[in-house]
Recover the amino acids of this structure.
DNA sequence: TGATGTATTATGTATGCACATATTAATTTC
DNA sequence: GAAATTAATATGTGCATACATAATACATCA
Protein backbone atom coordinates (compact mmCIF):
# COMPACT_ATOMS: atom_id res chain seq x y z
CA UNK A 1 0.00 0.00 0.00
CA UNK A 2 2.34 2.72 -1.28
CA UNK A 3 -0.39 5.32 -1.36
CA UNK A 4 -3.94 5.83 -0.26
CA UNK A 5 -6.62 5.79 -2.93
CA UNK A 6 -9.80 5.53 -0.97
CA UNK A 7 -12.41 6.90 -3.33
CA UNK A 8 -13.48 5.01 -6.42
CA UNK A 9 -12.63 8.02 -8.56
CA UNK A 10 -9.11 8.06 -7.17
CA UNK A 11 -8.73 4.36 -7.86
CA UNK A 12 -10.07 4.86 -11.37
CA UNK A 13 -7.67 7.75 -11.93
CA UNK A 14 -4.70 5.69 -10.82
CA UNK A 15 -5.71 2.75 -13.00
CA UNK A 16 -6.13 5.07 -15.98
CA UNK A 17 -2.76 6.63 -15.24
CA UNK A 18 -1.09 3.23 -15.32
CA UNK A 19 -2.85 2.35 -18.55
CA UNK A 20 -1.82 5.61 -20.19
CA UNK A 21 1.70 5.29 -18.83
CA UNK A 22 1.80 1.82 -20.43
CA UNK A 23 2.53 0.13 -17.13
CA UNK A 24 -0.46 -1.90 -18.20
CA UNK A 25 -0.50 -1.94 -22.03
CA UNK A 26 -3.46 -3.22 -24.10
CA UNK A 27 -4.14 -6.87 -23.36
CA UNK A 28 -2.28 -6.79 -20.06
CA UNK A 29 -3.96 -8.45 -17.09
CA UNK A 30 -4.62 -6.43 -13.94
CA UNK A 31 -4.10 -7.78 -10.45
CA UNK A 32 -7.30 -9.12 -8.97
CA UNK A 33 -9.63 -6.93 -6.96
CA UNK A 34 -8.48 -8.21 -3.59
CA UNK A 35 -4.83 -7.44 -4.34
CA UNK A 36 -5.62 -4.05 -5.82
CA UNK A 37 -7.72 -3.19 -2.79
CA UNK A 38 -4.81 -4.15 -0.53
CA UNK A 39 -2.39 -2.10 -2.61
CA UNK A 40 -4.64 0.94 -2.73
CA UNK A 41 -5.62 0.65 0.91
CA UNK A 42 -9.34 0.55 0.26
CA UNK A 43 -12.22 -1.92 0.24
CA UNK A 44 -12.71 -4.36 -2.60
CA UNK A 45 -16.11 -2.78 -3.32
CA UNK A 46 -14.33 0.47 -4.11
CA UNK A 47 -12.00 -1.20 -6.59
CA UNK A 48 -14.97 -3.02 -8.08
CA UNK A 49 -16.86 0.23 -8.57
CA UNK A 50 -13.88 1.81 -10.31
CA UNK A 51 -13.12 -1.14 -12.60
CA UNK A 52 -16.77 -1.76 -13.44
CA UNK A 53 -17.14 1.83 -14.63
CA UNK A 54 -14.03 1.49 -16.79
CA UNK A 55 -15.37 -1.74 -18.25
CA UNK A 56 -18.65 0.00 -19.12
CA UNK A 57 -16.60 2.56 -21.01
CA UNK A 58 -14.86 -0.19 -22.96
CA UNK A 59 -11.43 0.52 -21.47
CA UNK A 60 -11.25 -2.73 -19.55
CA UNK A 61 -12.56 -6.20 -20.27
CA UNK A 62 -13.68 -8.31 -17.36
CA UNK A 63 -14.61 -11.96 -17.19
CA UNK A 64 -15.29 -14.01 -14.14
CA UNK A 65 -12.42 -16.20 -13.18
CA UNK A 66 -10.40 -14.97 -16.18
CA UNK A 67 -9.89 -11.60 -14.51
CA UNK A 68 -9.56 -8.05 -15.74
CA UNK A 69 -7.54 -7.06 -18.80
CA UNK A 70 -6.84 -3.78 -20.54
CA UNK A 71 -8.97 -3.82 -23.69
CA UNK A 72 -6.98 -4.89 -26.75
CA UNK A 73 -8.92 -2.71 -29.13
CA UNK A 74 -10.38 -0.02 -26.90
CA UNK A 75 -13.39 0.64 -29.10
CA UNK A 76 -14.23 4.28 -28.82
CA UNK A 77 -17.48 4.21 -26.96
CA UNK A 78 -19.37 7.45 -27.42
CA UNK A 79 -22.65 8.39 -25.83
CA UNK A 80 -25.06 10.28 -28.03
CA UNK A 81 -27.78 12.38 -26.48
CA UNK A 82 -30.52 12.76 -29.02
CA UNK A 83 -32.62 15.72 -27.94
CA UNK A 84 -35.97 16.80 -29.26
CA UNK A 85 -35.53 19.15 -32.18
CA UNK A 86 -36.82 22.21 -30.40
CA UNK A 87 -34.19 21.80 -27.69
CA UNK A 88 -31.54 21.15 -30.32
CA UNK A 89 -32.36 24.41 -32.08
CA UNK A 90 -32.68 26.43 -28.89
CA UNK A 91 -29.35 25.07 -27.66
CA UNK A 92 -27.78 26.84 -30.64
CA UNK A 93 -29.33 30.08 -29.42
CA UNK A 94 -31.86 30.19 -32.23
CA UNK A 95 -35.63 30.33 -32.14
CA UNK A 96 -37.50 27.22 -33.12
CA UNK A 97 -40.41 27.31 -35.51
CA UNK A 98 -42.56 24.46 -36.67
CA UNK A 99 -44.99 23.98 -39.55
CA UNK A 100 -47.24 21.00 -40.13
CA UNK A 101 -47.17 20.08 -43.81
CA UNK A 102 -49.26 16.93 -43.93
CA UNK A 103 -51.52 14.96 -41.63
CA UNK A 104 -53.35 11.98 -43.08
CA UNK A 105 -54.09 8.41 -42.14
CA UNK A 106 -52.71 5.55 -44.14
CA UNK A 107 -51.18 2.13 -43.95
CA UNK A 108 -47.57 1.44 -43.12
CA UNK A 109 -45.93 -1.99 -43.54
CA UNK A 110 -44.68 -2.00 -39.93
CA UNK A 111 -47.07 0.35 -38.11
CA UNK A 112 -50.24 -0.86 -39.77
CA UNK A 113 -53.00 1.74 -39.72
CA UNK A 114 -51.12 4.88 -38.90
CA UNK A 115 -51.14 8.63 -38.78
CA UNK A 116 -48.76 10.00 -41.38
CA UNK A 117 -47.28 13.37 -40.53
CA UNK A 118 -44.88 15.60 -42.36
CA UNK A 119 -43.53 18.73 -40.77
CA UNK A 120 -40.78 21.28 -41.18
CA UNK A 121 -38.64 22.56 -38.34
CA UNK A 122 -36.96 25.94 -38.73
CA UNK A 123 -34.17 27.67 -36.84
CA UNK A 124 -34.37 31.46 -36.96
CA UNK A 125 -36.64 31.06 -39.95
CA UNK A 126 -34.24 28.92 -41.96
CA UNK A 127 -35.15 25.31 -42.76
CA UNK A 128 -33.55 23.03 -40.18
CA UNK A 129 -35.00 19.56 -40.53
CA UNK A 130 -37.81 17.80 -42.32
CA UNK A 131 -39.76 15.31 -40.22
CA UNK A 132 -41.54 12.41 -41.88
CA UNK A 133 -43.37 10.36 -39.27
CA UNK A 134 -45.80 7.45 -38.96
CA UNK A 135 -47.61 6.94 -35.67
CA UNK A 136 -49.20 3.55 -35.14
CA UNK A 137 -52.87 4.07 -34.35
CA UNK A 138 -53.16 0.58 -32.91
CA UNK A 139 -50.58 1.47 -30.26
CA UNK A 140 -51.38 5.18 -29.94
CA UNK A 141 -55.10 5.70 -30.68
CA UNK A 142 -55.15 8.99 -28.79
CA UNK A 143 -52.96 10.49 -31.54
CA UNK A 144 -56.17 10.94 -33.56
CA UNK A 145 -57.24 13.70 -31.17
CA UNK A 146 -54.05 15.67 -31.66
CA UNK A 147 -53.83 18.24 -34.44
CA UNK A 148 -50.03 18.60 -34.21
CA UNK A 149 -50.32 22.13 -35.56
CA UNK A 150 -48.85 23.93 -32.56
CA UNK A 151 -46.48 21.41 -31.00
CA UNK A 152 -44.47 18.75 -32.78
CA UNK A 153 -45.41 15.09 -32.65
CA UNK A 154 -41.85 14.53 -31.43
CA UNK A 155 -42.53 16.37 -28.21
CA UNK A 156 -46.08 15.17 -27.64
CA UNK A 157 -45.10 11.52 -28.04
CA UNK A 158 -42.21 11.73 -25.60
CA UNK A 159 -44.36 13.35 -22.95
CA UNK A 160 -47.46 11.20 -23.38
CA UNK A 161 -46.58 7.84 -24.90
CA UNK A 162 -44.20 5.39 -23.24
CA UNK A 163 -41.73 3.28 -25.15
CA UNK A 164 -39.41 0.55 -24.07
CA UNK A 165 -36.76 0.53 -26.78
CA UNK A 166 -35.88 1.62 -30.25
CA UNK A 167 -33.22 1.72 -32.89
CA UNK A 168 -31.58 4.52 -34.80
CA UNK A 169 -29.60 4.64 -38.00
CA UNK A 170 -27.56 7.55 -39.31
CA UNK A 171 -26.75 7.89 -42.97
CA UNK A 172 -26.09 10.31 -45.80
CA UNK A 173 -28.65 10.42 -48.59
CA UNK A 174 -29.22 12.58 -51.66
CA UNK A 175 -32.08 15.04 -51.31
CA UNK A 176 -35.29 13.88 -52.96
CA UNK A 177 -37.61 16.36 -54.65
CA UNK A 178 -39.76 17.07 -51.58
CA UNK A 179 -36.74 17.32 -49.29
CA UNK A 180 -34.92 19.66 -51.65
CA UNK A 181 -38.00 21.84 -51.91
CA UNK A 182 -38.69 22.21 -48.20
CA UNK A 183 -35.07 22.40 -47.07
CA UNK A 184 -34.37 24.94 -49.82
CA UNK A 185 -31.52 23.03 -51.34
CA UNK A 186 -30.84 21.37 -54.67
CA UNK A 187 -31.98 17.93 -55.79
CA UNK A 188 -29.42 15.31 -54.79
CA UNK A 189 -27.69 17.51 -52.23
CA UNK A 190 -26.11 15.48 -49.41
CA UNK A 191 -28.43 15.32 -46.43
CA UNK A 192 -27.74 13.92 -43.00
CA UNK A 193 -30.50 11.46 -42.22
CA UNK A 194 -31.63 9.79 -39.03
CA UNK A 195 -34.11 6.94 -39.15
CA UNK A 196 -35.65 5.98 -35.86
CA UNK A 197 -38.14 3.31 -34.83
CA UNK A 198 -39.49 3.07 -31.30
CA UNK A 199 -41.40 0.23 -29.68
CA UNK A 200 -43.47 -0.32 -26.58
CA UNK A 201 -42.65 -3.92 -25.79
CA UNK A 202 -43.52 -5.65 -29.07
CA UNK A 203 -45.80 -2.97 -30.48
CA UNK A 204 -44.47 -0.30 -32.84
CA UNK A 205 -45.03 3.25 -31.59
CA UNK A 206 -43.62 5.49 -34.27
CA UNK A 207 -41.27 5.50 -37.21
CA UNK A 208 -39.62 8.77 -38.11
CA UNK A 209 -37.12 10.00 -40.65
CA UNK A 210 -35.42 13.30 -40.03
CA UNK A 211 -33.67 14.94 -42.98
CA UNK A 212 -31.40 17.71 -41.80
CA UNK A 213 -30.55 20.76 -43.88
CA UNK A 214 -27.06 20.75 -45.43
CA UNK A 215 -24.28 21.65 -42.99
CA UNK A 216 -25.74 19.72 -40.10
CA UNK A 217 -23.53 17.51 -37.96
CA UNK A 218 -23.79 15.71 -34.68
CA UNK A 219 -20.91 15.82 -32.27
CA UNK A 220 -19.90 13.93 -29.21
CA UNK A 221 -16.85 13.12 -27.18
CA UNK A 222 -15.06 9.95 -26.20
CA UNK A 223 -13.20 9.15 -23.03
CA UNK A 224 -14.09 12.42 -21.42
CA UNK A 225 -13.88 11.62 -17.79
CA UNK A 226 -12.63 13.14 -14.58
CA UNK A 227 -8.98 12.24 -14.73
CA UNK A 228 -6.61 11.47 -11.93
CA UNK A 229 -8.53 12.61 -8.89
CA UNK A 230 -5.60 12.47 -6.54
CA UNK A 231 -6.24 11.53 -2.91
CA UNK B 1 -43.27 -4.59 1.31
CA UNK B 2 -45.82 -6.11 -1.05
CA UNK B 3 -43.23 -8.09 -2.96
CA UNK B 4 -39.59 -9.02 -2.80
CA UNK B 5 -37.25 -7.38 -5.24
CA UNK B 6 -33.83 -8.19 -3.88
CA UNK B 7 -31.61 -7.80 -6.89
CA UNK B 8 -30.84 -4.43 -8.41
CA UNK B 9 -32.03 -5.68 -11.79
CA UNK B 10 -35.36 -6.66 -10.27
CA UNK B 11 -35.70 -3.25 -8.64
CA UNK B 12 -34.79 -1.57 -11.92
CA UNK B 13 -37.33 -3.68 -13.77
CA UNK B 14 -40.09 -2.78 -11.34
CA UNK B 15 -39.23 0.93 -11.51
CA UNK B 16 -39.24 0.78 -15.31
CA UNK B 17 -42.55 -1.04 -15.22
CA UNK B 18 -44.11 1.71 -13.12
CA UNK B 19 -42.70 4.38 -15.43
CA UNK B 20 -44.02 2.63 -18.51
CA UNK B 21 -47.35 1.97 -16.85
CA UNK B 22 -47.50 5.72 -16.12
CA UNK B 23 -47.78 5.15 -12.39
CA UNK B 24 -44.84 7.53 -12.42
CA UNK B 25 -45.25 9.79 -15.49
CA UNK B 26 -42.52 12.14 -16.76
CA UNK B 27 -41.62 14.72 -14.12
CA UNK B 28 -43.08 12.66 -11.30
CA UNK B 29 -41.02 12.36 -8.12
CA UNK B 30 -40.07 8.92 -6.82
CA UNK B 31 -40.15 7.96 -3.15
CA UNK B 32 -36.74 8.30 -1.53
CA UNK B 33 -34.29 5.44 -1.46
CA UNK B 34 -35.00 4.48 2.14
CA UNK B 35 -38.74 4.17 1.50
CA UNK B 36 -38.24 2.29 -1.75
CA UNK B 37 -35.84 -0.11 -0.04
CA UNK B 38 -38.44 -0.75 2.66
CA UNK B 39 -41.16 -1.30 0.06
CA UNK B 40 -39.03 -3.62 -2.05
CA UNK B 41 -37.63 -5.45 0.95
CA UNK B 42 -34.00 -4.86 0.05
CA UNK B 43 -31.07 -2.74 1.15
CA UNK B 44 -30.82 0.92 0.23
CA UNK B 45 -27.59 0.22 -1.67
CA UNK B 46 -29.55 -2.06 -3.99
CA UNK B 47 -32.10 0.65 -4.75
CA UNK B 48 -29.26 3.11 -5.23
CA UNK B 49 -27.55 0.84 -7.75
CA UNK B 50 -30.78 0.44 -9.74
CA UNK B 51 -31.68 4.13 -9.76
CA UNK B 52 -28.14 5.25 -10.52
CA UNK B 53 -28.04 3.03 -13.59
CA UNK B 54 -31.36 4.46 -14.79
CA UNK B 55 -30.07 7.98 -14.23
CA UNK B 56 -26.99 7.18 -16.34
CA UNK B 57 -29.35 6.12 -19.11
CA UNK B 58 -31.19 9.43 -18.90
CA UNK B 59 -34.43 7.88 -17.70
CA UNK B 60 -34.28 9.40 -14.23
CA UNK B 61 -32.92 12.67 -12.95
CA UNK B 62 -31.41 12.73 -9.50
CA UNK B 63 -30.32 15.63 -7.33
CA UNK B 64 -29.25 15.53 -3.75
CA UNK B 65 -31.93 16.65 -1.38
CA UNK B 66 -34.29 17.35 -4.30
CA UNK B 67 -34.74 13.64 -4.86
CA UNK B 68 -35.31 11.45 -7.88
CA UNK B 69 -37.70 12.34 -10.71
CA UNK B 70 -38.71 10.67 -13.93
CA UNK B 71 -36.96 12.61 -16.70
CA UNK B 72 -39.26 15.16 -18.33
CA UNK B 73 -37.72 14.84 -21.76
CA UNK B 74 -36.15 11.41 -21.68
CA UNK B 75 -33.47 12.27 -24.23
CA UNK B 76 -32.77 9.17 -26.19
CA UNK B 77 -29.31 8.25 -25.00
CA UNK B 78 -27.60 5.93 -27.41
CA UNK B 79 -24.21 4.37 -27.01
CA UNK B 80 -22.11 4.15 -30.15
CA UNK B 81 -19.32 1.64 -30.40
CA UNK B 82 -16.87 2.89 -32.96
CA UNK B 83 -14.76 -0.08 -33.98
CA UNK B 84 -11.60 -0.11 -36.03
CA UNK B 85 -12.42 -0.38 -39.70
CA UNK B 86 -11.04 -3.86 -40.14
CA UNK B 87 -13.36 -5.17 -37.42
CA UNK B 88 -16.25 -3.23 -38.91
CA UNK B 89 -15.72 -4.88 -42.30
CA UNK B 90 -15.13 -8.33 -40.89
CA UNK B 91 -18.27 -8.04 -38.77
CA UNK B 92 -20.19 -7.84 -42.05
CA UNK B 93 -18.62 -11.13 -43.07
CA UNK B 94 -16.40 -9.54 -45.67
CA UNK B 95 -12.67 -9.57 -46.07
CA UNK B 96 -10.81 -6.40 -45.27
CA UNK B 97 -8.18 -5.00 -47.57
CA UNK B 98 -6.06 -1.92 -47.11
CA UNK B 99 -3.96 0.22 -49.43
CA UNK B 100 -1.69 3.08 -48.45
CA UNK B 101 -2.11 5.91 -50.90
CA UNK B 102 0.04 8.66 -49.44
CA UNK B 103 2.60 9.04 -46.66
CA UNK B 104 4.33 12.38 -46.34
CA UNK B 105 5.28 14.80 -43.61
CA UNK B 106 3.77 18.24 -43.46
CA UNK B 107 2.37 20.89 -41.21
CA UNK B 108 -1.11 20.85 -39.74
CA UNK B 109 -2.67 23.83 -37.94
CA UNK B 110 -3.51 21.74 -34.87
CA UNK B 111 -1.02 18.86 -34.98
CA UNK B 112 2.00 20.92 -35.97
CA UNK B 113 4.67 18.84 -37.73
CA UNK B 114 2.79 15.75 -38.64
CA UNK B 115 2.70 12.60 -40.69
CA UNK B 116 0.00 12.87 -43.34
CA UNK B 117 -1.46 9.57 -44.43
CA UNK B 118 -4.11 8.69 -46.93
CA UNK B 119 -5.38 5.15 -47.28
CA UNK B 120 -8.23 3.21 -48.78
CA UNK B 121 -10.09 0.44 -46.98
CA UNK B 122 -11.91 -2.16 -49.06
CA UNK B 123 -14.53 -4.75 -48.23
CA UNK B 124 -14.46 -7.80 -50.50
CA UNK B 125 -12.52 -5.68 -52.97
CA UNK B 126 -15.07 -2.85 -53.11
CA UNK B 127 -14.12 0.59 -51.78
CA UNK B 128 -15.37 0.93 -48.22
CA UNK B 129 -13.85 4.04 -46.67
CA UNK B 130 -11.20 6.59 -47.42
CA UNK B 131 -8.97 7.52 -44.50
CA UNK B 132 -7.29 10.90 -44.36
CA UNK B 133 -5.11 11.18 -41.28
CA UNK B 134 -2.60 13.47 -39.61
CA UNK B 135 -0.43 12.08 -36.83
CA UNK B 136 1.31 14.62 -34.63
CA UNK B 137 5.04 13.89 -34.66
CA UNK B 138 5.58 15.93 -31.53
CA UNK B 139 3.28 13.58 -29.62
CA UNK B 140 3.99 10.38 -31.57
CA UNK B 141 7.60 10.54 -32.86
CA UNK B 142 7.75 6.76 -33.21
CA UNK B 143 5.23 7.01 -36.07
CA UNK B 144 8.19 7.92 -38.31
CA UNK B 145 9.45 4.34 -38.06
CA UNK B 146 6.16 2.88 -39.25
CA UNK B 147 5.57 2.33 -42.94
CA UNK B 148 1.80 1.77 -42.56
CA UNK B 149 1.85 -0.35 -45.71
CA UNK B 150 0.66 -3.59 -44.14
CA UNK B 151 -1.43 -2.50 -41.19
CA UNK B 152 -3.56 0.61 -40.91
CA UNK B 153 -2.53 3.59 -38.81
CA UNK B 154 -5.90 3.21 -37.14
CA UNK B 155 -4.94 -0.11 -35.62
CA UNK B 156 -1.31 0.70 -34.86
CA UNK B 157 -2.20 3.89 -33.01
CA UNK B 158 -4.83 2.20 -30.84
CA UNK B 159 -2.45 -0.55 -29.84
CA UNK B 160 0.65 1.57 -29.29
CA UNK B 161 -0.30 5.15 -28.51
CA UNK B 162 -2.40 6.13 -25.50
CA UNK B 163 -5.01 8.85 -25.57
CA UNK B 164 -7.12 10.37 -22.88
CA UNK B 165 -10.05 11.84 -24.78
CA UNK B 166 -11.33 12.91 -28.15
CA UNK B 167 -14.25 14.24 -30.07
CA UNK B 168 -16.16 12.97 -33.06
CA UNK B 169 -18.48 14.63 -35.52
CA UNK B 170 -20.73 12.91 -38.02
CA UNK B 171 -21.95 14.70 -41.12
CA UNK B 172 -22.98 14.32 -44.73
CA UNK B 173 -20.72 15.89 -47.34
CA UNK B 174 -20.56 15.89 -51.14
CA UNK B 175 -17.76 13.78 -52.55
CA UNK B 176 -14.72 15.79 -53.56
CA UNK B 177 -12.67 14.80 -56.60
CA UNK B 178 -10.24 12.52 -54.73
CA UNK B 179 -13.00 10.91 -52.69
CA UNK B 180 -15.13 10.28 -55.76
CA UNK B 181 -12.16 8.74 -57.54
CA UNK B 182 -11.09 6.34 -54.81
CA UNK B 183 -14.57 5.42 -53.62
CA UNK B 184 -15.64 4.89 -57.25
CA UNK B 185 -18.59 7.22 -57.10
CA UNK B 186 -19.57 10.46 -58.76
CA UNK B 187 -18.44 13.95 -57.86
CA UNK B 188 -20.78 15.46 -55.28
CA UNK B 189 -22.31 12.13 -54.25
CA UNK B 190 -23.51 12.14 -50.62
CA UNK B 191 -20.88 10.64 -48.34
CA UNK B 192 -21.17 9.80 -44.68
CA UNK B 193 -18.25 11.49 -42.93
CA UNK B 194 -16.74 11.06 -39.50
CA UNK B 195 -14.19 13.57 -38.24
CA UNK B 196 -12.29 12.53 -35.16
CA UNK B 197 -9.62 14.21 -33.07
CA UNK B 198 -7.90 12.45 -30.21
CA UNK B 199 -5.74 13.93 -27.47
CA UNK B 200 -3.33 12.67 -24.85
CA UNK B 201 -3.95 15.14 -22.08
CA UNK B 202 -3.41 18.49 -23.84
CA UNK B 203 -1.35 17.16 -26.76
CA UNK B 204 -3.01 16.27 -30.06
CA UNK B 205 -2.43 12.67 -31.13
CA UNK B 206 -4.19 12.32 -34.44
CA UNK B 207 -6.84 13.90 -36.59
CA UNK B 208 -8.67 11.67 -39.01
CA UNK B 209 -11.47 12.03 -41.52
CA UNK B 210 -13.18 8.90 -42.73
CA UNK B 211 -15.30 9.17 -45.88
CA UNK B 212 -17.51 6.14 -46.26
CA UNK B 213 -18.68 4.82 -49.59
CA UNK B 214 -22.33 5.58 -50.49
CA UNK B 215 -24.86 3.35 -48.73
CA UNK B 216 -23.03 3.33 -45.43
CA UNK B 217 -24.94 3.85 -42.20
CA UNK B 218 -24.28 3.45 -38.52
CA UNK B 219 -26.89 1.88 -36.31
CA UNK B 220 -27.49 1.66 -32.64
CA UNK B 221 -30.29 1.06 -30.20
CA UNK B 222 -31.85 3.04 -27.40
CA UNK B 223 -33.31 1.82 -24.14
CA UNK B 224 -32.41 -1.78 -24.86
CA UNK B 225 -32.21 -3.22 -21.42
CA UNK B 226 -33.19 -6.35 -19.57
CA UNK B 227 -36.77 -5.62 -18.73
CA UNK B 228 -38.69 -6.73 -15.71
CA UNK B 229 -36.42 -9.34 -14.22
CA UNK B 230 -38.96 -10.75 -11.84
CA UNK B 231 -37.78 -12.06 -8.48
C1' DT C 1 -6.59 -40.33 -25.35
C1' DG C 2 -10.67 -38.02 -24.68
C1' DA C 3 -14.70 -36.99 -22.32
C1' DT C 4 -16.59 -35.78 -17.92
C1' DG C 5 -16.98 -34.20 -13.46
C1' DT C 6 -15.02 -31.30 -9.64
C1' DA C 7 -12.36 -27.78 -7.32
C1' DT C 8 -10.69 -23.36 -7.56
C1' DT C 9 -10.82 -18.62 -8.46
C1' DA C 10 -12.13 -13.86 -9.81
C1' DT C 11 -15.82 -11.18 -10.43
C1' DG C 12 -20.86 -10.00 -9.25
C1' DT C 13 -23.79 -8.50 -5.92
C1' DA C 14 -26.62 -8.11 -1.40
C1' DT C 15 -26.50 -6.24 3.41
C1' DG C 16 -26.04 -3.01 7.30
C1' DC C 17 -23.79 0.56 8.86
C1' DA C 18 -21.51 5.05 8.86
C1' DC C 19 -20.38 9.39 7.33
C1' DA C 20 -19.94 12.97 3.42
C1' DT C 21 -22.03 16.38 0.59
C1' DA C 22 -25.13 19.08 -1.92
C1' DT C 23 -29.25 21.55 -1.75
C1' DT C 24 -33.42 23.04 -0.17
C1' DA C 25 -36.16 24.98 3.59
C1' DA C 26 -36.46 27.36 7.75
C1' DT C 27 -34.70 30.64 10.79
C1' DT C 28 -32.33 34.34 12.40
C1' DT C 29 -30.15 38.72 11.88
C1' DC C 30 -29.43 43.30 10.05
C1' DG D 1 -37.95 42.98 3.81
C1' DA D 2 -33.56 41.17 2.23
C1' DA D 3 -29.46 38.78 3.34
C1' DA D 4 -26.99 35.60 5.94
C1' DT D 5 -26.98 31.55 8.91
C1' DT D 6 -28.54 27.16 10.31
C1' DA D 7 -31.07 22.89 10.16
C1' DA D 8 -33.03 19.14 7.70
C1' DT D 9 -32.92 15.79 4.12
C1' DA D 10 -31.94 12.87 0.00
C1' DT D 11 -28.42 11.15 -2.47
C1' DG D 12 -23.33 9.77 -2.76
C1' DT D 13 -20.02 6.89 -1.18
C1' DG D 14 -16.95 3.90 1.82
C1' DC D 15 -16.30 -0.45 4.50
C1' DA D 16 -16.57 -5.31 6.06
C1' DT D 17 -18.71 -9.36 5.28
C1' DA D 18 -21.10 -12.94 3.06
C1' DC D 19 -22.65 -15.64 -0.52
C1' DA D 20 -23.64 -16.32 -5.73
C1' DT D 21 -22.01 -17.34 -10.25
C1' DA D 22 -19.33 -18.08 -14.23
C1' DA D 23 -15.33 -19.93 -16.16
C1' DT D 24 -11.10 -21.99 -15.99
C1' DA D 25 -7.89 -25.65 -14.49
C1' DC D 26 -7.29 -29.93 -12.79
C1' DA D 27 -8.28 -34.58 -11.71
C1' DT D 28 -10.75 -38.64 -12.72
C1' DC D 29 -12.55 -42.33 -15.27
C1' DA D 30 -13.92 -44.99 -19.37
Amino acid sequence: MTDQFNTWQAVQGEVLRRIHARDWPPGHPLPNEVDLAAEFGCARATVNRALRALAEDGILERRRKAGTHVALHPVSRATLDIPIIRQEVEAKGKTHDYTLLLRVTGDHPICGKALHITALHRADGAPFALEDRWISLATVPQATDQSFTDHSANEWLLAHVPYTHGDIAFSAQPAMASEAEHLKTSLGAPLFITDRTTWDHDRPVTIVRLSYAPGYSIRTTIGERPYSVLP
